[in-house]
Amino acid sequence: MSDRTANPAGPKTVAVAPGDDAAPEAVASSMDVLLAMDLPVTFDVLPTGTELAAELAPAEREAFMVERLDAADTVLFGSSNGTTPGIAHLRWGRGTYANVRPVEWRPGYRSPMAHPEHLDYVIVRENLEDAYVGIMGDVDDLRSSGLIGPRARLAWSGEGRYAAKIITREGTEKVARFSYELARKRGEAKGKAPRLTVSAKTNMLPATDRWFCSIVEEVGANYPDVALEQYIVDDMAHRLVTRPDELDVLLLPNLYGDVLSDLGAGTIGGMGLAPSGCYGDDAAYFESAHGTAPDIAGQDRINPTATLLSAAMMLEWLGLDDRAQRLDRAIGEVYAEGRHLTLDQGGTATTAEFSAAVVDRL
Ligand code: ATP
């Protein structure tokens, strides 16, 4: 496999996984921007999913990726449709339990909301548990368990499947502490009293969802300065549209976090604007919140903003705060000016033209 290392100077190393479908286009144009910043970072740009599939046998791909990802300080990951392996390792293998998804409108974003100017909050999605633990099967396997309640028994006359959701005390305490700390940090930066909101289906799922919220409340005893609010998740979905200005940090279990962060992205102007970072105690990786956008692959029209803002979060995590702010500011200026926006934002710029405009602003 060829050596694709770029910008070899510098003490930090970042593995860059371009991913699949349209994601490599967003990653390549983001790399144009990052390399133009002359960062003290060595980038190890890995093959795309298509290249991996062409060059390595299926059994070798995962090991190849894991080795290269682990060799770096952190990772910028383009979305994967399953062809590019590595996400499961980055998430469960490295215990990155807090998925941070900022929802922040900026002038120039094409929001469908009448008043998007107050949209500025962060979703913290628990990243390892809940319905994503992969425990699924046939209901026949459960019939002998003695766990079947009367409602389920009524419905189970024939064929069926189940999926389990698991919430643990340890996992919830960790992500709760992370969220309280983040609320403090944001409160301090904004000069406002810190606020945390937690939401789940507490009324229907007491064993998991109500417990999740009550553990978050317990952890709050160590953060008396942070005001905690709780809402049932269906009410929360409504509030994300009707009263988003009341939010600052919103903590959600995995599945709700996945769904509601797309809703949040919709309110600011779409998936192309939605960055994300996944944090553990000793590791982090960064990827846009959107998928691989297969419908626009190969068209040079994917909006790289989500990838670029994820890269800004990455620079901050690497301790390069001033560079992160510089990148963030340059992106904001391109939107405020409005002359080089991609199709999803009502413009005519290609992916590469948008990135070139960001480079001009740096
Ligand atoms: P996943 O299940 O992995 O989230 P998906 O196919 O459900 O993937 P996306 O890949 O996020 O979802 O795409 C949803 C829609 O949003 C598609 O029409 C896609 O083209 C569009 N989209 C996603 N990301 C971008 C982007 N960065 N720029 C422009 N359009 C995008």
Can you characterise this structure?
With 362 residues, the chain is an alpha/beta fold. The protein is built from 13 helices and 13 strands. It has helices at 23-36, 49-55, 58-70, 87-93, 140-143, 150-155, 169-190, 206-219, 233-242, 254-268, 305-317, 321-337, 351-361, and strands spanning 5-6, 12-17, 41-45, 74-77, 98-104, 120-126, 136-138, 161-163, 195-200, 227-232, 249-252, 277-279, 284-286. Strand 12 and strand 13 form a beta hairpin. Helix 1 (23-36) crosses helix 11 and helix 1 (23-36) runs parallel beside helix 13 (351-361). The two termini are 34 Å apart. It binds adenosine-5'-triphosphate. Adenosine-5'-triphosphate (ATP) is lined by residues 26, 79, 271-272, 290-293, 295-296, 302-303, 306, 344.
Give the CATH superfamily of the largest domain: Isopropylmalate Dehydrogenase
What is the highest CATH level, the class of the largest domain? Alpha Beta
How many helices? 13
Strand order of the largest sheet: 1-3-2-4-13-12-5-6-11-9-10
**CA-to-CA gap between the ends?**
34 Å
Tally of individual domains: 3
CATH architecture label of the largest domain: 3-Layer(aba) Sandwich
Low-confidence stretches are 1-9
Overall structural class, as computed from helix and strand content, comes to alpha/beta
Q: Overall mean pLDDT score?
A: 94
- In percent, how helical is the residue content? 40-55%
Kindly provide the radius of gyration, computed on alpha-carbon positions and rounded to a whole number of angstroms.
21 Å
| Attached small molecules | adenosine-5'-triphosphate
Overall body shape: globular
The proportion of strand residues reads: 15-25%
